[in-house]
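Folding Query — how this chain folds
Tokens — whole-number codes for backbone shape
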Amino acid sequence: MPVLHITKNDIHLCSVGSDDVWMFSASVHADIWGPACSELTVTGGGKRRSDGSFDFLIWEMAHALRKGDRIVFSFEEGSASSPRQPAIDDETPAEDMPTDLVASGEDITRLAARPKSNQDCRWRCVVYGEPEILVLPDDHRQNLDLHLLWNEMRAHRVRVGLSRSSLDEVMSRSGGEDVFLEYIEETARIELGIE
């Protein structure tokens, strides 16, 4: 079974192992508004109980990344997480959860008008065995996302997606431009340099 090791500037941040989760997600996000240059989030769904429920686990949440940082994701053989994360105890009653999260046109216009403190953000991405990819936001597609997704139903592979999207596309969940999208089997190494 696999494990995902994540380092920042050659220092271990965390490992998410299949002993503890039925699925995990690791993502890096940036947009032209900032204030963070980029942010790393690593989460997972704990092993399912007999009733189908599971705990939500967090290894990193909106971990700020700066220019010059280099994140390496290594998907390889293994199974143990470190550090092992406690379950999140979410006691929010279902009736208190928001049900309408659709942004209005006015909301999108207001968000787009924010000061742009991160316009010069650039990512240099290398997926082992592939040519280097330079990706940057522009006025049309202001958001960058790198996303790794794994689940135990297809435990031999990890989905790796690098994309750019506009604020409208993010708010409507309609996708964007896939710069790189592959299912990588067995072992994988993805390097992301923040410039």
Q: What stands out?
A: The CA atoms of residues 124 and 192 lie 6 Å apart. The radius of gyration is 17 Å. Residues 2-47+54-86+113-194 form one domain. The chain has one domain: 2-47+54-86+113-194.
